[in-house]
Amino acid sequence: MTEEKKKKTAAKKPAVKKEIAEKPEKKAASPKKEKKARVKKEKGIKGGKRYIAARKNVDSAKVYSLNEAVEAVKKNATAKFDETVDIVLNLGIDASQTDQLIRGVVPMPSGLGKKVRVAVFAKGAKATEAEKAGADIVGGEELAAKVEKGNVDFDLCIATPDMMALVGKLGKVLGPKGLMPNPKLGSVTMNVEGAVKAAKSGQVEFRTDKAGIVHAGIGKASFEVKALADNVKALVKAVNSAKPSGIKGVYLKSAVLSSSMGPGVKLDLASVA
Fold first, then answer.
1. Whether residues 80 and 213 fall in one domain
2. Which residues of 26-60 are buried (b: 16+ CB within 10 A; e: fewer)?
3. Could you list the residue range(s) of the whole structural domain that residue 156 is in?
4. Local structure of 253: helix, strand or coil
5. What's the domain count of the chain?
């Protein structure tokens, strides 16, 4: 086909228009919503109406005494469920040094306000002792077989020393869940009765994270002020007792109390001591 014919053929073909779908315009927010969003952005506030309202009840620049902090946290726990009261302790340690890592367990004087399901690996007289003490699950090989299949329906695991050869094989299942029995935490013991009763009455296992911070739940917002204050004192005392000998400078740097859905309240550690 000659060049002239190609031009004539192309001229006869109708031009194809590419239709571009126009994007629907976004509905503009109302002036009232825009103002709220702008105020939240300026103040750096995140969260819903309940959280923002709770923030107004807390002076972010103030360090509260223990009782004041507990009262403020209880006041701001306005969710429809019984919120857990948490404490965060910032420690002056080097978390990259293994000899400065903090870990331990402490019974809460006022309990934790929740049911704890305890499993015990024991046999013979110790198995009977565990059952009488109130353990929810007691067993040996048959219990290990269930756990190995992923049936982990308990919150805490205790074992007698003679059962650790069996329990050690379950590390891949129990380890990631933080349920592996540990002699340093009192969960590998011949005093099965004492361990079960302590677990059922409410105890907290604490450990530092990579940033050198201890985070733990110390009760429910429905607890009395004194009950929560006693639990705070018990945890702080236990963390203090676990202080590594090589630590220099300030060990307990700061503490914050909060409920599950509420803002943090700075705690005066001097009032705890």
1. yes
2. eeeeeeeeeeeeeeeeeeeeeeeeebbebbeebee
3. 118-201
4. strand
5. 2
Look up tokens 């308990």; give the residue.
Answer: 154
Residue 220's DSSP bridge partners are: 84
- pTM to 2 decimals? 0.71
Q: Is 61 exposed, middle or buried (0-12, 13-18, 19+ CB in 10 A)?
A: exposed
pLDDT digits (tens, 9 = 90+) for 231-269: 999 999 999 999 988 888 899 999 999 999 989 999 999
Is 263 contained in some domain? yes
Q: Is 257 helix (H, G, I), strand (E, B) or coil?
A: strand
CB 88 within 8 A of CB 262: no
Nearest to 257 by CA among 87, 90, 112, 75: 87
Tokens representing residue 33 in the block: 């919503």
Q: Is 165 helix (H, G, I), strand (E, B) or coil?
A: helix
Helix (H) or strand (E) holding 252: strand 252-259
Question: What CATH code is carried by the domain that includes residue 168?
Answer: 3.40.50.790
